[in-house]
């Protein structure tokens, strides 16, 4: 389904990053971090009073030749980014929303852990396993 997932903090610092193919990790990091500009543009555009009731799912941020990049922002300005392979035409918008909701849910469970230090990168092996399970679609 997806080839990469990332969680970016409210100060645009990476909290978590994973790829199904570790050999392409650097290229995906570049794509994910460059999508932050599009996210900021979407968040800052429009009426300020409407932004409080905004949709968390931002939709497709941009499309490249081989990949499509989707975004989701929580109420606390935590950014979730998923990179999808462009050849995967069977993946619908509601399935991508579902992936983001699941990712947000396990993120919330992880930060509620009393041993998690706020604003630190996520290094939990069980969290990593859960995210890879979500993005691989198993």
UniProtKB/TrEMBL annotation:
GO terms for biological process: endoplasmic reticulum to Golgi vesicle-mediated transport. SUPFAM superfamilies: SNARE-like (SSF64356). Keywords: Endoplasmic reticulum, ER-Golgi transport, Golgi apparatus, Transport. It is found in: Cytoplasm, Perinuclear region; Endoplasmic reticulum; Golgi apparatus, cis-Golgi network; Golgi apparatus. One of its GO terms (cellular component) is endoplasmic reticulum. CDD domains: TRAPPC2L. SMART domains: Sybindin (SM01399). Its main location: cytoplasm. Belongs to the TRAPP small subunits family. Sedlin subfamily. PANTHER family: TRAFFICKING PROTEIN PARTICLE COMPLEX SUBUNIT 2 (PTHR12403). Part of the multisubunit transport protein particle (TRAPP) complex. This is Trafficking protein particle complex subunit. It comes from Aquatica leii. The lineage of its organism: Eukaryota, Metazoa, Ecdysozoa, Arthropoda, Hexapoda.
């Amino acid at each position: 389904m997806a080839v990469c997932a990332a969680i970016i903090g409210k100060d645009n610092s990476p909290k978590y990053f994973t790829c199904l193919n570790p050999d392409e990790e650097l290229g995906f990091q570049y794509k994910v971090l460059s999508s932050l500009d599009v996210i900021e543009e979407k968040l800052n555009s429009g009426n300020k009073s409407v932004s409080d009731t905004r949709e968390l799912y931002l939709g497709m941020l941009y499309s490249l030749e081989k990949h499509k990049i989707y975004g989701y922002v929580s109420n606390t300005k935590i950014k979730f980014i998923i990179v999808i392979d462009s050849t995967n035409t069977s993946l619908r918008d509601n399935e991508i929303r579902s992936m983001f909701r699941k990712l947000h849910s396990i993120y919330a469970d992880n930060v509620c852990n009393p041993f998690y230090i706020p604003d630190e990168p996520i290094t939990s092996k069980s969290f990593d396993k859960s995210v890879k399970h979500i993005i691989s679609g198993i």
